[in-house]
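User: Show me an example of a complex going from sequences to structure tokens.

Assistant: Sure. Here are the input components:
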Amino acid sequence: MNSQTTICAQATPPGISGLAVIRLSGKDAFTIADKCFKGKILLKNAPSHTIHYGKFYDSDTLLDTITASVFRAPHSYTGENIIEIGCHGGYVVTNNIISTLIYSGATIALPGEFTQRAFLNGKIDLTQVEAVADIIHSVSKQGSHIAARQLLGGFKKRITAIRQELLSVCALLELELDFSHEDIEFIDKSNLLILLYNTIQTCRDLLNSFSASSVLRDGFRVGLVGFPNAGKSTLFNALLDKKRSIVSPIAGTTRDYIEDSLSLNGISIQLYDTAGLRHDSTDTIEIEGIEFTQKLLETSNLIIIVNDVSVSPVYSLSLYEHLVKLYPESKFCYVQNKIDCVTNIDIHNLNFSSIFISATQDIGIKQLKDFIEKSASENLERISDVLLNTRHSVILSKIISSLEISIQSLENGFSNEYVSIDVRNAIHFLGEITGEFMNEEILNTLFSSFCIGK
Amino acid sequence: MNNYDVIVIGGGHAGIEACIASAKMGCKTALFSMNIHTIGRLSCNPSIGGSAKGHLAKEIDALGGVMGVLADKSGIQFKLLNTSKGPAVWSSRSQNDKDLYPLFAQELLLSTQNLTLINSNIKEIIISGNRVKGVLTETDDIIYANCVVLCTGTFLNGILYTGLNGIAGGRINEQSSVSISKNLLNYGFKTGRLKTGTPPRINRNSIDFRKLNAVGGDITPTPFSFRTTNVKNTLTCHQTTTTEQTHDILRKGFNESPMFSGIISGKGPRYCPSIEDKIERFSEKNSHQILLEREGLSTDSVYVNGFSTSLPRYIQEEGLKSIGGLENCIILKYGYAVEYDYFYPNQLTPSLETKSVQGLFFAGQINGTSGYEEAASQGLIAGINAGLKFLGKPPFTLSRAEAYIGVMIDDLINKESEEPYRIFTSLAEYRLLLRQDNVYKRLSQYGFSLGLLSENDIIKLNHREYLSEILVTLAQETKTNPTVINSYLESIGETLITSTTPVNTIAKRQKSSLKALFESNNTHVPFPTDSNLFDKAEIEIKYEGYIQRQLAEIETFRQTESKLIPKNIDYQNIKSLSAEAREKLIKIAPISLGQASRIAGVSSTDLAVLMLYIR
């Protein structure tokens, strides 16, 4: 890590666009920019937080007319001197400008390096670093809003509150040990139990918002399953509202599945078509490529079972029951496809609810989409004001199990030093979320999810 | 040409361990004492060990130090403390004959090869460049040495107080040494001021024992040292309490207490407070426990444990006489406070060598600690490292995950304490693994490699570990059934078993005992055992889950400990460090990221900065 260099990179996504922003950060940002920028005044003399119009040259060649925004250290995103160059979009102009900057003394930034510098200069803390990553990766509007709140430190406050409480518990447990000869009980056992149970509940609540968080981050995941010829692919295309004749298998997987996304009322929906279910002669259901399909279904928020109603309305019922048992956390929907192929079906005799559609005739597709949207927004309602990522959820699970062990120790009559080891562990894990506790692994995880220019 | 390889100054508990360790390692060693007849005195409490201190005493024994042996030889009552808690915090404590302890210590020193005792005051440490050269005695003789270990305790600028009268001196009736402090200040060492106190001693024959509760030792007393085969309880102590009246009397004298009136500026220990501190701080408590501990078998002097004070004499006397059983007590020696210089221990490396002067080591109270055990363990580590330095070998240090000694030294050099440092179980993060029962397994191999334990010692100790492992295996492999075991389970109030179950599964239950389980099950143990051996095995079984989790924690600890910080790092150049962190990092110069993380004033953000910077 060399903070002596001045780094530059394109901050807006690459590609064709009207405008692009190139960010230049480091102690020499102004002098490097002044080598190429010709405006009314030198940027090194410009006050902070001002914008200057001018021309950008590669020696004598005019590359573009640009705006240069000046941010002086420490009042900038990275805490260093920053010039943000607003130029015309497209590959050629941006690449030329960046090459010129590098020729003038800048170096190309590594992924996440701007944020890393912001962190190193004390501009943001680690939960905020994560929030920046979350905003970048956020697929929905709500998601970016919550990530933005996190950026302001709300999540950290909540975690810190839990941590403080556990720290005081620990201190009392320790005090009792240190003053064992004085025979004073500093903390009542039943109060301690209540406190531990409450903390576990708080962590569970946070954790529950994780699946909802992931909907915001990654979209609401809908898996289509069914036996061959039930019309899954047709339904898949009908839901996407496009004719997708060729499905491309995802490389590196053993089983073929197709994936695409659509947006329903602002919520991003990830749609998966799983393959590989078959009815065998003995009438038992096998899920082939078990690990793979399982993984897909496990992470699905909604599983749609596509049944060929022309064979029988209950043809896939055993599959449905089987999956409900396997994935109790998921929502289910039983879809009777090919309704156009049957004439007289007594839907009132079915003792389970299903949606009747025809994927080819566009019957009931709107109804099904409404159902998917309703399920997705129900899921989002569970979200509170925090957005958890996978790292947080893994740590929260660890905290819960540590606290559960400490409750077990208390209930089994183990003395304080055994109770406190797991409370201490929980405190340690909480510190991993807020950055109170630091190790290299955590740092790597934090900065690895960035792309260049952030 | 050096006169000695290693010189140790001061014959307190630190000095004793330091000079014996160095001599045993084959270094020609001299111990300088102001008065060799006072070497090894128990100047405060006539006891060794106690909560967490017992762990230190055991660790000293496991490394080949002598405190445990001396405590066993002079011990008159032995007790395992905290037995109502889990085995990790069980701590040995002995009461000792304060006349015998120093005699045994002096005898041991005189019979140690390579060691010379010299009765002389040291005026000056001779330093040239950044290297220690030797010492200058009061008779202006220069004695050259490769390494010097300074263990001068409270003798540096010590002032004694009873009431508002201060007299210079380390312990009562002994003179303090001012010149070494001055001498070292000239070399840039920084000192602070601390205070400690001691309670009055009273005549045994003046106590009315009929009113008091007798407190005896353990039914089966266990020694500190593996080298001791047998110890006996030959004395009982007595317990009484202070009253509201006592507190009222003592409060009268508060404005004449040097600690309250601000005459003594040094900070006192939080955990071993004077009686006036206790009254002030726990004002809602209307009585405090007092233990009357006879100071030896051939003395009538009784130590009034819990009544440490520096109040004026007439207040002490009136206060004591308001306590049940002490109505007519005769005071032999009044309580007093002592204020003394200490050197900020962050001037030391983990081997207790000073950072600025090569070959100069500090150990004991001089580093701001309180207690014999704390002093002795530092003495041992300093003595070992002085020896290693002379022998041209790398230093020996213990980590926080290995020993209480490691915890203490790491705390001393990284944290800034404004009061005397005393060891506590709460200071050890890995305390479930730092137990007394596994102390030899943890440390004796080191003692052997350093030459402090003999081959016979290590064979004996390893054999015991081996036997305990066999017991654990036996418990895993032996199955028991409801018929033979349920009556035992019923008798201890545990749930009965319904089918054949391995013994170790039942031994995991809180109330069950491995020994009783084997007996009820008629399991034959093919070698002679004792209760300690069973305890050892039982702890391994019962707390297996906890032990495994701590081992996992230690793994993480070791990883950050092994992330070394380059020696030539320029903290001035890392702009993003906080000013406080930068200053501390420069001062302490941590070896690893792990050590950096424990420095007071270095925040997690500073640490992350450091991590990103050095990778």
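The lines above are the inputs; the final block is the predicted structure for all two components together. The mean pLDDT of chain B is 89.
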